[in-house]
Amino acid sequence: MTFHRAELMKVLYDGLCKEARLKILTSKTVTNIESQDSGVTVECSDETVYKGSIVIGADGTNSVVRKMVHRIATMNVPESLWGPLMPYKSEFDCLWCTCPPMVEPGHYFETQHQGRSVITLTGKKRNWLLLFEKRPEASRSRQKTSSDDLQQFAARFFSFPACPQFTVEDMFAQRTTAGLTRLDEGMTKHWFHGRMVLVGDACHKMTPNAGFGFNNGVQDAVVLCNGLQKLVLQGASSDVQSGQLRDVFAQYEASRQEQVRRDLSFSAHFTRIQAWDNWIYYLFARWIRPLKIAQRWSAEKISHYFSKASVLNYVPAKERFHGLLPWQNSTMSAS
């Protein structure tokens, strides 16, 4: 079942106590971060200042925290060793749009073509349409897009079927929201410096076709929080030492980078298979992937893969659903 990510965020927010909600500050623009041995200071555009022990950069592809980490780190280390400020490159563009539910929920449709592909997802309250196109050449730069750009991009797909009942043109005409973006791919060499640490798209970015981007961001947060909780249980106080944090951050980085590399590779291949990027991808997409035995094999491999997901090992919870394949990392039993 497909659902809107904002609905998940609302469920998580509504589950917080009042005190926790008061700590969530919106409409803030970070302008500077100072990291010292004793703590961190964050300055915002509205002249507010916040002090704390660490800064976790979960601020996306154009991460301000990553820029601050890069600025501070390259004061003492050459950029050639640390890595570039913008570590991602884009080989594909993606137009996304939502529209009222035109197809019953619970379906996933693909349309494939050389250099292009279409994915349609159906939920209870809305449908999603994703149009992918390979760029003439890879790029690391950003650019703004206009409504004309959206229309011209979508028009190249109008004759493509979005699902058995409708074409891309049919669904695009009913759009309620839409956007055009370059699909960044890559991973930063370093995920932390001093008291600043990165998670999710701030330190790795993958194409969305396989659905691994958000999941990896969540896994980053889980592994990092488990490490920080362990540090707290060891008796660390609010004035935790930089060396202790460095050990936690280093363990987090080491444990996650190998997994992220695999998912980056899988996502890249999956996107290019759907766009028939070469004759091997074409043969696989057209003649192997549709086979039932191939689909069963893929489902089994992916199920075993997801069953290994990390969980918050200090949060008591009840497992409400039990499938054929159990989770390998169980939560604490709730009393």
Automatic annotation (TrEMBL):
Belongs to the paxM FAD-dependent monooxygenase family. The keyword Oxidoreductase applies. Coiled coil: none annotated. Its cofactor is FAD. It comes from Beauveria asiatica. Residues 6-237 form the FAD-binding domain. GO terms for molecular function: FAD binding; monooxygenase activity. Pfam families: FAD_binding_3 (PF01494). InterPro entries: FAD-bd, FAD/NAD-bd_sf, FAD_mOase_fung. The keyword DNA-binding does not apply. This is FAD-binding domain-containing protein. Keywords: FAD, Flavoprotein, Monooxygenase, Oxidoreductase.
